[in-house]
Amino acid sequence: MLLIHYYNRLYLINVMKTLIRNFGSLDRHYRANLVNSVVGIKQASLVGTIDSKNISNLALFSSCVHLGSNPALVAIFSRPSSDSPKQTLNNIISSKFYTINHVNDLILQRAHSCAFKFAADESEFDECKLSEEIVTDFRAPFVAESNASIGVKYLRHFTIEENGVVMIIGEMKTLFIEKGLIQSNGEIDFNLSHSVGVAGNNTYYGLAQIASLKYFRANQKNQLKKIVDEESYQNSKEAK
Question: Contact 201/63 with Cβ under 8 angstroms?
């Protein structure tokens, strides 16, 4: 353990941990992987769009987040639009629809290949041998090989001032889920979906359930405390 003085306070630091403060001094590739992965594993998804010439597009994303369930809003984040022509962003804005399709372990190599910069007139569906699935009255293509897909209607987007990243907000309009994956409480069973998570730029992980824990209500603090104390005691016992 190491005792350090910081902002007029003393802190006890575990020397078995690495302390990083100066991000600007890191190699840019190392920094990108570190910052991307330290926030944790995210669902790997293929975002499906179509352009004005009816050419379909697939892009690999790991930034999908839900913004609430009523209405059912989701967001994805696109790199700064100044970096290079953004087919996904442009297609979403022009067509107003897009799909978010879970990557699973059976299509991992093909899904990862969608990150390649294909020409604008080349469809990732064709180049990466994935199948388009069309749902009636929905403009954007789904990935047939995906076990869990979301059809989204574009609402708005805005640029984050600090780094130029574009946040795209949409409303869920269609869910296209393999039968048997939705549990009785409404949650998706990731043990059965074979969905894949990603951390860093190209490292993938399987998803497996560890536990389904109880939600504690305001009048159940004693039960909460008992469980917290038991786990803390068990961990301290194992550390000795």
Answer: no
Euclidean distance between CA atoms 92 and 143, whole angstroms = 16
Q: And the tokens for 122?
A: 């080349």
Q: What is the pLDDT of residue 177?
A: 94
Please name the residues in contact with 63: beta carbons below 8 A apart, sequence gap of 6 or more.
Answer: 42, 75, 76, 77
Q: Using one digit for the tens of pLDDT, what is the confidence trace for 129-160?
A: 999 999 888 999 999 999 999 999 999 999 99
SS (H, E, C) 148-194: EEEEEEEEEEEECCCCCCEEEEEEEEEEEECCCCECCCCCECHHHHC
- Out of 3.40.120.10, 3.20.20.10, 3.40.50.300, 2.30.110.10, select the CATH number for domain 40-236: 2.30.110.10
Question: Identity (one letter) of the amino acid at 4?
Answer: I
Domain boundaries, the chain: 40-236
Per residue in 160-180, pLDDT (tens digit) is 999 899 999 999 999 999 999
The band of 59, judged by pLDDT with boundaries at 50, 70 and 90, is very high
Residue 97: what pLDDT?
A: 97
Q: What pairs with residue 205 in β-bridges?
A: 197
Backbone φ and ψ for 147, nearest 5 degrees, come out as -90, -15
- Its sign, for the CA torsion 223, 229, 232, 233, is negative
